[in-house]
Amino acid sequence: MSKYIPGNQKHLTIEDRIYIQNELDKGTSFKDIARFLCKDPTTISKEVKARRASDWFHKGTFLNAKNFCTKRFRCKKTNACNKILLCGVKCASCPTCNQTCPDFQKERCSKLDRAPYVCNGCSKKINHCTIAHKYTYNARFADRKYRECLKDSRSGIAITRQELHKKDKIITPLIDQGQSPYHIVANHPELNLSVRSVYNYLDMGLLTARNVDLKRKVKFKPRKVHKSQISDRRVFNGRTYADFQQLHLESFVEMDTVHSAVGSSKTLLTFFFTREKLFLAFLMNRNTEGSVRLVLDRLEKRFGTFDFLTLFEYILTDRGAEFGDPDSLETGVTGIQRTNIYYCDPMRSGQKGGIEQAHTMLRMILPKRTTFEFLTQWDVNLITSHINSTPRESLNGRTPYDVALEAFGEDVLKAFQLRRIDPDKVILTPKLIRYNH
């Protein structure tokens, strides 16, 4: 019958567990908790019993906090262990009483043997309770325990140690003979493995053979690690590159980030105006969604909401995790929508090729493996001024600065903290930064 309850098939969330903890503290029954959460009462019962926290040795009203016998208050036994000839100390006060006494009976709480199985909601104060072994239900501890169980159940391999040993006895000698994993799998269908699984077992070190025993793999360079991508795919609804193409825009803004060397968290947030070829960069202390929003908020306050909307009406960017909250980026400080964000297709950086080309010029001044720790926003503005003062063939020999000056006006370029550089003094090498430090 429980499968017909709406939402019963979903896992409990942290909010559900916090509700369970609060209701247990009030003494609410499992049935009432389950009714509110649209779950079966057995689900709540199993959740509490499986993820309750165990706690020992809370000192109660009795002198010996390590004595858990029900007879300890009226017991008059002495020398039950027979280790000391003349012992006048009562066994109830001895730390080894429970281990040596043959009449030991462990004290139990009926509240822990039946619902609610925890001490939550108990009327007795914890420092007055004589039960040594206590159980409590803590929502955050239970959620962390659930996450660990969920991760462990999906990690490792789904075969026993004996089965792995049998497969290893076939695979390792053949690898030592110089055979490839594909050769082994093709000639031994009894392995019931794919070629990818054999490579995975070798990477995980589960077989006697290692990657170094393969003839070709050690010669291959490891693949480049791409920056983290957006995990919530729902943000792409109505914001894909196909949706962007349907707008048929003549001009828009491309947005991206440029990372510092390993060991530095500073990042450059870059913009590229496709019609004017104007390139902008802003220094961020961290590569996070909040840092990107902070830059956009600062620009909006500088220009005003409606002028910002005129400049940055449509933004095209990649699927980096720092752009994973488009709703907050599109909403201004006054609550008015200030821009529209769209995303390129995965692994298609050429769809925003203008900003990628501008990055090549930026890397002439800040080569890869250059740390941004010494940079200030003044340095970044100087770099972008030199880049925007370089004539472009696509602009018929004009500079992006001059084209943007006609399109936006001098006040906008001053707000961007850009200035014109004499063409003979333009520097597109790392010397530009060395001269200014």
Oligomer class: single chain
SS-derived structural category: alpha/beta
Widest sheet: strand ordering: 5-4-3-6-7
Overall pLDDT: 86
Q: Detail the poorly predicted runs.
A: none
Strand % is 5-15%
Helix content: 25-40%
* Main β sheet profile: 5 strands, mixed
Topology:
Layout (H helix, E strand, L loop, with lengths): L13 H13 L3 H8 L3 H10 L2 E3 L41 H4 L9 H4 L20 E3 L2 H15 L7 H16 L4 H7 L7 H10 L36 H5 L7 E7 L7 E7 L4 E7 L4 H15 L1 H7 L2 E4 L8 H5 L9 E4 L9 H13 L11 H12 L11 H9 L1 H6 L15 H5 L2
Parallel strand pairs: 3-6, 6-7
Antiparallel strand pairs: 1-2, 3-4, 4-5
Helix pairs in contact: 1-6, 2-3, 11-12
Annotation keywords:
single chain; 437 residues; alpha/beta; two-stranded antiparallel ribbon; 18 helices; 38% helix; elongated
Brief summary of the model shown:
With 437 residues, the protein is an alpha/beta fold.
Molecular structure report:
The strands form 2 sheets. A 5-stranded mixed sheet has the order 5-4-3-6-7, sandwiched between helices. It has a two-stranded antiparallel sheet with strand order 1-2. It has helices at about 15-25, 30-35, 40-50, 95-100, 110-115, 140-155, 160-175, 180-185, 195-205, 240-245, 290-305, 305-310, 325-330, 355-365, 375-390, 400-410, 410-415, 430-435; strands spanning about 55, 135, 255-260, 265-275, 280-285, 315, 340-345. The chain has 18 helices and 7 strands. It is of the alpha/beta class.
